[in-house]
Amino acid sequence: MGENSVIVLLGASGNLAAKKLHRRGLLSDKLKIIGFDPTHMSHDDFVKHMKSSVDQSSPELEDHFKAFSERCSYITIDQDAGDDSFVELKKRMESFIDGDEAQNRHFYMALPPNIYVAVSEQLRRNCYSEKGDSQIIIEKPFGHDLESSVELHKKLEPNWKESKIFRIDHYLGKEMVKNIMALRFGNPMFGALWDCNHIDNIQISMTEDLGTEGRGGYFDDVGIIRDVMQNHLMQLMALTTMERPGSFSAEDLRQEKARVLRLVPPLETKHTLVGQFVKSPDGKHPGYKNDDDVPEDSRCATFCTSVAYVRNARWEGVPFILKSGKALSESKTEIRIQLKDTTDAMLKDTRHNQLIIRIQPNEAVRLKMNAKMPGLELRTVETELDLTYKQTVEDPDIPEAYEALLLDAFKGDYSESVSEQELEASWKIFTPLLHELEGNKDIVPAPYAYGSEGPDGLEEFVASYQYQK
């Protein structure tokens, strides 16, 4: 990151990550942070707001926060004053440098997507750094379907080139997601097995044990497919299936992810199971439609399992079972790779070998394999090689996803920014399915109880694609 840099937080999502980067000593001494938001706050109010989410359990941490708060200032946006607030922002940024010094400007837009374009235009018109680097940092959703995503990119493009847009999918900042490439390309034993000749099926899942918790009105316009599958699960699938990139540079890595996603045909309803949670059997947890903001006739899916394929020689015929849902029995994100059965008739009752990459919680890599049962008979038992970070590494310092991604953005490393090509490819996979589910009123999500494993028939559905528990 350049010595003279400014982070402008349009919204509050970037605050905590920036504070932790400061505590790690990863921010330049000259870096300044400006809160820029319509909420009326004084500087002291802004500091108190940030302080409320910071661990200050020791004098050292208190000192860290005090030093961090000295970097910060705040400007209230006057939404009725046109460009005036953005002109004020420009003057504030210029006050941090002497004369014609270059200054890098990072605009973190934690804003509703419907105002991305208008705000980005005002930033480009009034706040762009002519002698330094400027970038906008935006979070999902990047559109509502393929058409809206392409339209959003076209509207941003005149003012902000692709090389100046850092799109955050926070899953790309998670430690175990970063570890996928190390596992694949740093271990020849996995590389030799990483194809359809050895792998039977792959399940990529992200489940939550909480419902929509008062966010039903928002969620009803989004649904589980847009909220999780089109972005997070597609990134996990791309990293799992892509070919080895020429290097780990942003250009090579993002190119390989986009290339493999283009080989995934659009998902179909015949390979899809959707559900919607109802209240728990004990009545303690409400159903989705019990939320006052959710229409009584809502067909919004809070659960979805869909099967994808990659049309190339490496993955021909391997089903990728994508699963995500809310109000399920547990919260976890993992990639479960099942290898083909042994063909040796001497060994009875052997199980699939499985490589399990647990993204969260309790980050781990586990390899399930068959071994001889102790005793006089030749009988097999399933055993497990377990690399659980917290058991293997003493006090692992695992950075939070936003820390890693913001640091990359500030350094100009776009390897973990979602490219426009990846976005377009992933929307092409999901848009036909979304339009069919939303347009065909005969498709009604199957009910499942809050806290259950999912809709009835789920186990049979995934078993039909070779998956075995």
Please give a quick description of this structure.
The chain has 469 residues and is an alpha/beta fold. It is built from 15 helices and 15 strands.
Please characterize this protein's 3D structure.
- The chain contains 15 helices and 15 strands.
- Strands 14-13-12-11-7-10-9-8-15 form a nine-stranded mixed beta sheet.
- Strand 1, helix 1 and strand 2 (32-37) form a beta-alpha-beta unit.
- Helix 1 (15-23) packs across helix 13, helix 6 (146-156) runs antiparallel to helix 14 and helix 10 (223-241) packs across helix 11 (250-261).
- The two termini are 47 Å apart.
- It has helices spanning 15-23, 43-51, 59-69, 84-94, 116-127, 146-156, 175-186, 188-191, 216-219, 223-241, 250-261, 389-392, 401-411, 420-439, 458-463; strands at residues 5-10, 32-37, 72-76, 104-109, 134-139, 165-168, 199-207, 272-278, 303-308, 320-325, 332-339, 354-360, 364-372, 380-388, 446-449.
- Helix content is 33%, strand content 21%.
- With 469 residues, it is an alpha/beta fold.
- The mean pLDDT is 87.
